[in-house]
Structure formats: C-alpha cells, structure tokens
C-alpha cells in the first residue's frame, strides 16, 4: 500500500480510502504535507482535511457563478469526501459534528448540480429512518438494484464516491444507504449497530419492492469492509435478495477485535474508540463482549443465493483465512472467492491500494447475476 504517512498505517489507509472515493492526491497533499513529519495529532488532522474541503467548496462556488455546474458538482463531492475523511478519525466532539454536517451540506450541493440527480430516500425501519441515495439505472422500465452497505466507519456519501455510475452504466440502480451503526443513524440519532442485519435488510427490501422503477425479482446486496458481515448476514435470512457480494470477507468480527485489542494493533484503519461508539456501549470491555455476536458461523449455511467474496491477499484488517472460512461455510452452490494478489495489485483491505479492478469485477458480476 502507498504509505503517505510512512509510520502511520491508520492515516495512510484513510488517504487511500479518500482517493478510492475520487479524492485527488495533489489536493490532499497541499493540506496534509505538513503532517507527514510531525507527531500524530487529531486536531491537526481534522483541521487539514477541513481545510482541503473548504478550498474545494470555494472553487465550486466560483464554478457555479460561471455556470459550470458539472465542475461544481465534482468539487462539492470531493469537499464532502475530504470532510468525511477527517471526520472518520476524529472522536465524538463538536469538531467531529461540524465536519460531518459540512460533509452533508457539500454532498447535497453536489447532488443539486449533478447532470443526473440522485434521489434521496428515507426508509422506515425498526431502528427509525434509514436514509440513502438511489443512483438511477441508465435503462428503461423496471431495473435491477444493488443495495450498497457501509463498513465500520463509512457513510453513504463515501459509498457514492466509491461506486459512482458503475452500476448505472450497466443498467442497474444502486441504493447507497446509512444503516444502524453507520452514517446518519449513528451520528445524528445515536443508533448503534446490530448483529441481526436481516432486520434493516428486510425493511429496505420492503421499500424497494413497492417502487415502480425497481424490479422486485432482481435485488442484490453489496457490503464493503464490515459490510462483508452485514450483507451476507442480511442475505442469509432475507431471500428476496437474489445475489450477494462481500467486498472484504468477514467471518468472526469479534475475534478480530479481540486480537486487535490484545496486541494494541498498529495496522487497524480505525481508532480503538470507534468500537464502543459503533456498538453503543460505554466501555471497551462492554464493546468487546457485545461484538462477539458479529459472527457468520451460524448464518452462512442459510445463504443459498449466488455469492462473491472479494478479498486482498495482504489485507491487514481482516485475515485472508477469514474470507476462506466464510466461503467454505456459505450454503450457495454458485459462489466465488476472488483474491487479489500483491503482484497484480489490490491486495490490501477492500483493495484500496488498487480498487478499480475489484470495483469493475463486482459491477460485472452483479450484471451477470441480476
């Protein structure tokens, strides 16, 4: 992986995720270069990303004044990505809330100026409203759709930056959505994650099958990072899902966190405070106990739909062996484990070091299976 911060895996992986979501290295470097040789400091990190985002907003406003709406949309989208990249590593605080609110505002402006506008949807669920954006298919009539789930610390806005029009160009709609423990539900309403992700999955499917623009018989489910738990778990018990992809294989997420905490791992992409935050507990000890429920051991035998697991050979966050265990346990007769190697690229977590081949593979696979 390109280590922008040579001695800081967490910050380097954040830079790679930002680029994966269409961030530009030159823009990032203008603001982060002073941090490369300094001692890690969260306040400086947040301010640097906020600065990079604010600069893109200013340039977007100039584009709007000149009538360059498409250029403005791209600038606002990157501003949202930069705000969120800083916010992900910022502990709960007024600074974190400000960055997140600025990200939502910038993304809304990006949508306003897009040539093909996204539709914001709000879906009723047992956990309250689940907000998302529907990326329409470039197709006539009822289209298949892929639901795209966040990972441990991602948001629907970053998901859009990662996938953009890849599904739409193949005649497939895509719903990027915040669910329990992610995005708006966590940040604005304090809704933690839950192990039984078939519950939000069923609520989302209930909504999609009522839409006149969606084919209810062709609904797929994709999850990235911890979404590699959320999506297979949802598909295991919600069989209106017709195909499932784990962009990062997960087997026993509780065991992963036990190892991280016991060794005080320096190769995690998130700070340790995030586990109690996402789990909805007051202490790390409570969070480590709760996260033991996040295992696919008993769920995957129930997953009989086509399944693709995409993993990196050198994934430092989730061991490749976990992806292999998930693959073996899945009940599907149509299943594939695609491992990207160091030699070909894309060998890191969620292929962030070279993401486009994995992104294209996933979109093509869904086009074949929906």
From TrEMBL:
Query: What Gene3D superfamilies does the entry give?
Result: alpha/beta hydrolase
Extent of the signal sequence: none
Family annotation (InterPro entries): AB_hydrolase_fold, FrsA-like, FrsA_esterase
Q: Name one GO molecular function term.
A: hydrolase activity
Which keywords belong to this entry? Hydrolase
Say yes or no: keyword RNA-binding present: no
What Pfam families does the annotation carry? Answer: FrsA-like
The similarity annotation says: Belongs to the AB hydrolase superfamily.
Q: Please give the name of this protein.
A: Alpha/beta fold hydrolase
């Amino acid at each position: 992986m390109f280590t922008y911060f040579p001695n800081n895996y967490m910050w380097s992986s954040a830079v790679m995720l930002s680029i994966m979501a269409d961030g530009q290295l030159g823009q990032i470097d203008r603001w982060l270069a002073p941090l490369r040789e300094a001692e890690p400091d969260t306040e400086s990190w947040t301010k640097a990303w906020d600065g990079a985002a604010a600069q893109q907003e200013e340039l977007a406003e100039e584009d709007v004044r000149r009538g360059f709406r498409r250029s403005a949309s791209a600038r606002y989208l990157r501003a949202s990505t930069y705000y969120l990249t800083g916010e992900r590593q910022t502990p709960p605080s007024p600074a974190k809330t400000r960055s997140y609110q600025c990200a939502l505002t910038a993304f809304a402006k990006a949508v306003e100026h897009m040539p093909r506008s996204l539709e914001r949807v709000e879906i009723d669920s047992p956990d309250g409203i689940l907000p998302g954006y529907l990326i329409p298919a470039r197709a006539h009539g009822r289209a298949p759709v892929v639901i795209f789930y966040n990972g441990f610390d991602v948001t629907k806005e970053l998901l859009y930056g990662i996938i953009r029009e890849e599904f739409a160009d193949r005649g497939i709609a895509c719903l990027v959505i915040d669910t329990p423990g992610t995005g708006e539900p966590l940040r604005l309403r304090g809704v933690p994650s839950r192990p039984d992700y078939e519950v939000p999955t069923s609520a989302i499917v209930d909504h999609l099958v009522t839409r006149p623009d969606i084919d209810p018989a062709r609904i797929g489910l994709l999850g990235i990072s911890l979404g590699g738990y959320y999506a297979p778990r949802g598909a295991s018990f919600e069989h209106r899902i017709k195909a499932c992809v784990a962009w990062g294989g997960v087997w026993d997420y509780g065991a992963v966190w036990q190892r991280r905490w016991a060794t005080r791992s320096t190769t995690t992409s998130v700070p340790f405070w995030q586990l109690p935050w996402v789990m909805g507990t007051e202490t790390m000890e409570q969070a480590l106990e709760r996260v033991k429920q996040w295992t696919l051991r008993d769920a995957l035998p129930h997953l009989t739909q086509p399944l693709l697991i995409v993993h990196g050979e050198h994934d430092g966050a989730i061991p490749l062996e976990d992806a292999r265990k998930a693959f073996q346990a899945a009940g599907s007769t149509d299943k594939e484990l695609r491992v990207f190697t160091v030699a070909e690229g894309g060998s890191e977590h969620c292929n962030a070091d070279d993401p486009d081949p994995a992104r294209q593979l996933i979109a093509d696979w869904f086009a074949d299976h929906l």
